[in-house]
C-alpha cells in the first residue's frame, strides 16, 4: 500500500472515530441535562473522549504520510458519517433540510481547503505565539458569554458554543503545527509553553463541544465544528504562515464561493433546528372549560320528611348564618301554641339560577285556650 493510500485510509477511519465520539457526546448531553461541560461520572462520556483521542491520533499519523491539502479536507467527512451512524445506532434521524445543509457544508469546506496552497513550513516566534494565544482566549470567552446570554434560545446557544469549540480545536492545530516545525530541528524546552497551550485548547474544545450538544441535537453543532475548525486554522495559515490560495485570482474567487456554500449549509442546519424547536414549543389547542353553575343555597333538612323536594336538595349545603323567613298567616295569634302548624314553603330547582320558593298548601290547626 502506498503512503498516499494509507493516508487516505487513516483519514477515513479518523473521521469515523470523530463521528462516533460526537454521537456518544450528544447522547450523554441529552441524558444528563444538569451537567453541561464535563459529566465525569458518566462512563459513556469517557468513551467519547477515547474516540476523540483515537480520531486525533489517526489524523496526526495521516498527516505524517500524506499532504495537508488531502488529509485536512477528508476530516470534513465527519459530519457525513455522523448522520447515518446516528440514525443507525441511536435512531436519531435527521430531516431532509439537515442532510442538504450537511452536504453543502462538507462540499464547501472540502473545496476551500483543497484550494489552500502548501508553502514551505514556517513557525511562529514567541511574540506571535503570545498574541495568538491571548486573542484566542478572548474570542472563546466572548463566545461563551454570548452563549450564556442567549440561554433562552437553545439552537443559537448551541451554535455559539460549537463555534467556540471549533476555534479552540483550530488554534490547537496551529500550535501543533508550530511545535512540529520546531521539532524538525530538535526537541527544545522552549516548546513547553506551546505544549501547555495545546493541552488547554484541546480540553476547552472538548468541553465546549459537549456543551454544544446539550439541547442542540447533533447535526448543527457537529457541522459547525467541522467547518470552523479547519477554517480558523487555514485563516491563521494564510495570514501568519504565508499560505496562499492556488491558481491566483481564480483560486481566491473559488475559495470565496466555497466559503459561501459552507455558510449556507450551516444556515440550513440552524434553521432546521430552530423550526423543530418551534414545532415542539407550539401550545396544544385546548377547549375552554365551561364553568359549572354555582350550587344553590338550600338544605334538605329544612323540609318535611315526606316532601319530594327533600331528595333533590340532598347533599347541598347552606352556610349556618343564612336563615329563610317563614311568614305567619293571618289569624294566628302571636302567642299561639308551639304545637300549631305553621306554613311551610316548598323549594324547587330553577335550572340556570338559584332555587326559588314555590307557594305550597298551608295547613294549620289552632288550639284556643279557655
Automatic annotation (TrEMBL):
Pfam families: Mg_trans_NIPA
Protein localization: Membrane
Membrane topology note: Multi-pass membrane protein
InterPro entries linked to this entry: EmrE-like, Mg_trans_NIPA
DNA repair as UniProt keyword: no
Alphabetically ordered keywords of this record: Membrane, Transmembrane, Transmembrane helix
Highest taxon in the source lineage: Bacteria
Presence of the UniProt keyword Membrane in the record: yes
Transmembrane residue ranges: 6-24, 44-64, 70-90, 102-121, 127-147, 159-180, 192-211, 218-241, 247-269
PANTHER family: CONSERVED INTEGRAL MEMBRANE ALANINE VALINE AND LEUCINE RICH PROTEIN-RELATED (PTHR40761:SF1)
Protein name in UniProt: DMT family transporter
Annotated source species: Streptomyces composti
Lineage: Bacteria, Bacillati, Actinomycetota, Actinomycetes, Kitasatosporales
Amino acid at each position: 500500500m502506498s503512503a498516499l493510500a494509507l493516508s487516505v485510509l487513516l483519514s477515513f477511519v479518523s473521521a469515523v472515530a470523530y463521528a462516533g465520539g460526537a454521537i456518544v457526546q450528544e447522547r450523554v448531553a441529552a441524558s444528563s441535562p444538569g451537567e453541561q461541560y464535563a459529566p465525569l461520572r458518566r462512563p459513556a462520556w469517557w468513551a467519547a473522549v477515547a474516540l476523540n483521542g483515537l480520531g486525533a491520533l489517526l489524523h496526526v499519523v495521516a498527516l505524517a504520510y500524506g499532504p495537508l491539502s488531502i488529509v485536512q479536507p477528508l476530516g470534513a467527512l465527519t459530519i457525513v458519517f455522523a448522520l447515518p451512524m446516528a440514525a443507525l445506532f441511536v435512531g436519531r434521524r435527521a430531516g431532509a433540510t439537515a442532510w442538504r445543509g450537511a452536504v453543502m457544508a462538507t462540499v464547501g469546506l472540502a473545496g476551500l481547503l483543497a484550494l489552500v496552497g502548501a508553502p514551505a513550513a514556517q513557525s511562529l516566534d514567541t511574540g506571535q505565539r503570545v498574541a495568538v494565544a491571548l486573542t484566542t482566549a478572548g474570542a472563546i470567552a466572548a463566545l461563551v458569554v454570548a452563549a450564556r446570554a442567549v440561554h433562552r434560545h437553545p439552537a443559537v446557544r448551541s451554535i455559539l458554543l460549537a463555534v467556540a469549540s471549533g476555534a479552540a480545536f483550530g488554534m490547537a492545530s496551529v500550535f501543533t503545527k508550530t511545535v512540529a516545525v520546531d521539532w524538525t530541528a530538535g526537541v527544545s524546552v522552549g516548546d513547553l509553553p506551546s505544549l501547555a497551550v495545546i493541552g488547554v485548547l484541546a480540553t476547552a474544545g472538548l468541553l465546549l463541544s459537549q456543551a454544544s450538544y446539550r439541547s442542540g441535537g447533533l447535526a448543527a453543532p457537529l457541522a459547525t465544528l467541522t467547518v470552523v475548525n479547519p477554517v480558523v486554522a487555514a485563516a491563521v495559515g494564510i495570514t501568519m504562515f504565508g499560505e496562499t490560495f492556488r491558481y491566483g485570482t481564480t483560486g481566491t474567487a473559488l475559495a470565496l464561493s466555497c466559503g459561501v456554500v459552507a455558510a449556507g449549509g450551516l444556515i440550513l442546519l440552524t434553521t432546521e433546528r430552530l423550526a423543530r424547536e418551534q414545532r415542539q414549543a407550539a401550545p396544544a389547542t385546548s377547549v375552554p372549560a365551561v364553568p359549572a353553575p354555582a350550587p344553590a343555597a338550600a338544605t334538605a333538612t329544612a323540609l318535611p320528611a315526606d316532601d319530594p323536594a327533600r331528595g333533590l336538595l340532598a347533599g347541598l349545603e347552606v352556610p349556618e348564618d343564612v336563615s329563610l323567613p317563614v311568614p305567619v298567616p293571618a289569624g294566628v295569634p302571636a302567642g299561639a301554641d308551639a304545637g300549631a302548624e305553621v306554613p311551610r314553603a316548598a323549594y324547587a330547582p330553577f335550572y340556570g339560577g338559584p332555587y326559588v320558593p314555590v307557594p305550597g298548601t298551608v295547613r294549620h290547626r289552632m288550639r284556643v285556650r279557655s
